[in-house]
Design goal:
5 helices, single chain, alpha/beta
């Protein structure tokens, strides 16, 4: 499993071409407080129920609050044939600290 720091994700999002799917696996209430632009919310507990809606060929960056839940989801997706998944190390907490200084935190 790959990992991006927040700055690496920022650089990846600035590249030309198709951006990765930003898969946020936090709970709805967390997502409502703060989220990285263009993120798709599927709470961790619903991933197995919604896996059929995800494209195993797509590039995913999985996001949570601190990077722990997203790491678990990355491992789950890899076990189910997803080969291009990356964990956002430090989650939205690190994104707010290192990239988007105006993002609310909790």
């Amino acid at each position: 499993m790959q990992q991006f720091s927040p700055l690496q994700l920022k650089e990846r999002l600035e590249q030309a071409g198709e951006p990765p799917v930003l898969l946020d696996v936090r709970e709805t209430w967390e997502f409502q407080i703060c989220a990285i632009s263009n993120s798709v919310l599927i709470p961790m507990g619903q991933i197995s129920l919604q896996i059929e809606t995800l494209d195993p060929q797509a590039e995913y960056v999985v996001i949570c609050h601190h990077g722990i839940r997203s790491r678990s989801v990355c491992l789950f997706l890899e076990r189910h044939g997803f080969n291009n998944v990356t964990n956002l190390a430090g989650g939205v907490e690190s994104w707010a600290r290192d990239v988007d200084l105006d993002m609310p935190t909790y």
